[in-house]
Design brief:
alpha/beta; about 200 residues; Urease, subunit C, domain 1
Amino acid sequence: MLTLHVAERSPETAVLVDGASVAAVGPYEDLAAAHPSARVRRWPGILTPGLLNPYAPELLEATYHPDPREADSLGTEPIGGERARTLFGADPSRLGASARRGVQRLLAHGTVAIAGELRARPVLDAVRRAGLAVGQRPPRLPGPPSLSPSPLILVPPLTSGGPARFAVFDVADRAELVRRGAETCVATVIAGRLVYRAR
């Protein structure tokens, strides 16, 4: 089934998705007229190709993402450094569960690709299951590891026949996205599937 994604602030870059691939990219009115039976998903803000986060090892192997059931004892924010190493050392099975929660956090920040060498099998499995692309780590990293690194790194533009991998941010334009960061993500699509949607 064809799905047409359009964001209110970027109607000129609507995306027609067919399964896991992009069928077409172009103005919403043109795509809607050419494919009247397509299901339409309307979003606020702008539609972009999505983000690459270059800090995969730091965020998924060296950071512990607490389970909501651990909020009373560990809080809800990611835990790094020696404390994370202690948590993983005390219970190695925590790594896979933490990585799955970390991947969900990445998806909630419009991340569709990651970079950096991952070594732990449970982390690699979590990345594969989510369908995140693995890209080249830039020679110079933008700053400390973050779910919303600065500057943000957009993946290459969407093309017909390419993978249906993109994100939508509730901002007026790219300048506001840069200013406010990836926390403004409202939807992330990977392989044509809606893998994150803001409540």
